[in-house]
Amino acid sequence: MQQTAINPWPWSLNFGYHQGLVIEGAQRQLFISGQAATDKEGNPLHPSDMRAQMQVMMANLEMVLAGAEMTLSHLVMLRLYSVNVDDTLQHYDIMAGRLAAFDVKPTMTLLGVTRLAMAPLLCEVDAIAVA
């Protein structure tokens, strides 16, 4: 599989993502539903703690990837949803650090929303991965 980054404006690289990606030769695609700070029964964890929720959210994302024999390095697109964008950006280092550890810069969008499926949840991410 070959990835070609499209970055007419390089500022996004400072935030750890590409403006676009051309994917060639991929054999498998994984579409990942929204992952949030929930336990294995789906119960919300860490109410009112964005940092802790982002850590669990990323761990849950990695578990879904592992189930498909993939890692964060296979991500090509992320959508991050937050009930408080400023708070998310304050703790963005959690996501950026995990992505940087795999030297991956997927395409990405951060959306502010009024709430998520369960009221205690503060952030959620969905993704597409290819291998």
Fold and architecture overview:
The protein is an alpha+beta fold and 131 residues long. The chain has one domain: RutC-like (60s Ribosomal Protein L30, Chain: A), CATH 3.30.1330.40. Helix content is 25%, strand content 31%. It has three helices and six strands. It has a four-stranded mixed sheet. Strands 1-2 form a two-stranded antiparallel sheet. The longest helix has 18 residues. The termini are close together.
How does the major sheet shape up? 4 strands, mixed
Strand share of the residues?
Answer: 25-35%
| Name of the level-1 CATH class | Alpha Beta
Give the helix proportion (percent range): 25-40%
- Total helical elements: 3
Element-by-element helix/strand order: EEEHEHHEE
Care to give the gist of this entry?
The protein has helices at 50-67, 85-90, 93-101, and strands at residues 2-6, 20-24, 29-36, 75-82, 107-112, 123-130. The protein has 131 residues and is an alpha+beta fold. It has a four-stranded mixed β-sheet with strand order 3-6-4-5. Strands 1-2 form a two-stranded antiparallel ribbon.
